[in-house]
Amino acid sequence: MAKLKKMVSAVGSIKDLNSARAEFDDASRILPDEAIFPPDDIRPAQTDARTLLLRITHAAESQKDNSQGDTFAAIHIPAANDFAVVMTLNPSAQIESGSTFATIADEGGWPVVVAMVEDILGVRIDHVAELEASALGAVVNELGGLPVYSRTAFSAGDVEFIEGTNNLNATSVGAFATADPVDDAGQTRTRNQRAALRALIQALKTGGLAKDPNKGATVLGHFASGIHHDQALTTLELAEIANSLRQLESDDIAVVTIPTTSRREDDGTVIIDLDAEAMPALKDALAGNDLPDFFRYLVSLGY
């Protein structure tokens, strides 16, 4: 009887996994290349590295047409598969005089977003994924919550966060990542997004998904329910990326914010600029020069 139950469970998990894969790979989830990527002649060259640009969007009425509260993160795995970098970007960062990443993104859409990120990082974006916060919330609940550290106590709607460790669930993860609790042009929010992504990656690595097909299928199903992505990001490609991350030690995955500087104008407005001193070194590291050392150094500085 025990063997029969195990066999029935295995058959069920295979069906669930196939269903989740079918939803993820469904044509309705695919964003056409011409709708997300800029012209090839202005893009960095292709390499054996993999870089995925993740955008987490939120359904709040005030944010439907505004990128300001979205999470933008680039996941970069070098060709050697010996390290990985997750870089969150503050949408308030100025790209051109008077124009922030968010305002340009809102006006130009995905091709402009990809072009800006490729210019900032100096590497080609191979994949694009846009994930709804509600789908992420379901994943977080399935993983049992995410422990994240907040530098300051704040409230967002009906949710209260303490200074220190907070355990995020489906309801609070979106609030934590979108709230702007400090008048610093989104710097605190971007750090909170970094903290949430760091905890999510750790939970996915240690959640036993590879050993528990049922749980793995459920998590993939939650992701699939709220994702849109480029055509090349199939479940097979996603599995290769996930496997690369799973095989790395936690110390070999650096989750950082892209370095910026801030200044306050006479009228009190906070202006965020990409760090002119740090960015050339970041680009050089992503090009393959001492990547682990550079990003471990950024982590040690609190980025």
From TrEMBL:
It holds the Pfam family LytR_cpsA_psr. Belongs to the LytR/CpsA/Psr (LCP) family. It comes from the Bacteria. This is Transcriptional regulator. InterPro entries: LytR/CpsA/Psr_CW_biosynth (IPR050922), LytR_CpsA_psr (IPR004474). Residues 102-205 form the Cell envelope-related transcriptional attenuator domain. It comes from Brevibacterium aurantiacum.
